[in-house]
Amino acid sequence: MGLQQFEQRLERLVEGAFAKAFRGVLQPVEIGRRLTREMDLQRAVIVSGILAPNSFEILLSQADYERFGSFVEVLAGELAEAAKQHAEDENYVFLGPVEVSIGWSEELAKSTFVVSADFVEGDPPPPSWLVLTDGTRIAIEEEPITIGRLPECAIVINDHNVSRRHAQVFRDGDAIIVADLDSTNGTKVNGQSITRLRLNNGDVITVGTTRIYFETTQQDGLE
């Protein structure tokens, strides 16, 4: 699925200003196939799932690099998206953000290329918390925080206006997301009903009659 979407996006791109870059022998989808193959070959089973490399260096011949021209940066971005989609399709996890760099080597002949893959840890996400009205602070880490009436919920609220599994707060990359779990009475953020929303520092989540405050140390806030 990831490579298919990659090819479809490239088809749209080459209809425009980058068309000339694809008249040679080397096709970008070949690079995409090699990149995802490296992910499959280097994957490793860890406690949290199947770990795949997230940092890729691609070397082209000088002729191909110059032929692609300004398309190189666009191609790097598309390859990163293809890697993310492949990871999603295969249930892979990463140590950090996906990064793709493209350069050239005078040792490579035209239409040949090298893909190097590595595991690179990303910076830890900024600490974030849910703060209850009694002052209790619950750190938002890798495991989703479920809010509801059930005893197994991370935040248990004894309120007949609250569903058994009412809402969930979880990390999505650098973002913190709150999502309503098809509750009977809905979930609000800052007084507005939501189904799924990225939280900003100081937001107030309302579940039933209970208010839960979101705090993060990220200086620029979350958009």
Description:
- Strand 11 (about 165-170) and strand 12 form a beta hairpin.
- With about 220 residues, this protein is of the alpha+beta class.
- The model has no long low-confidence stretch (mean pLDDT about 85).
- Helix 2 (about 30-40) packs parallel to helix 4 (about 70-90).
- It has helices spanning about 1-15, 30-40, 60-70, 70-90; strands at about 45, 50, 55-60, 90-95, 100-105, 115-120, 130, 135-140, 145-150, 155, 165-170, 175-180, 185-190, 190-195, 195-200, 205, 210-215.
- Helices cover about 25% and strands about 35% of the residues.
- It contains four helices and 17 strands.
Structure summary:
The protein is of the alpha+beta class and 223 residues long.
Can you give keywords for this protein?
elongated, alpha+beta, single chain, 4 helices, 5-stranded mixed β-sheet, about 25% helix, about 220 residues
Number of distinct helices: 4
- Specify the overall morphology: elongated
Question: Beta fraction of the residues?
Answer: 25-35%
Which runs of at least 5 residues are low in confidence (pLDDT < 50)?
Answer: none
List the helices and strands and how they pair.
Elements: H1 2-14, H2 28-42, E1 44-46, E2 49-51, E3 55-61, H3 62-68, H4 71-90, E4 92-93, E5 99-105, E6 113-118, E7 128-131, E8 137-139, E9 145-148, E10 155-156, E11 167-172, E12 175-180, E13 187-189, E14 192-194, E15 196-198, E16 204-207, E17 210-216
Parallel strand pairs: 2-4, 3-5, 9-10
Antiparallel strand pairs: 1-2, 3-6, 7-8, 7-17, 9-11, 11-12, 12-15, 13-14, 13-16, 16-17
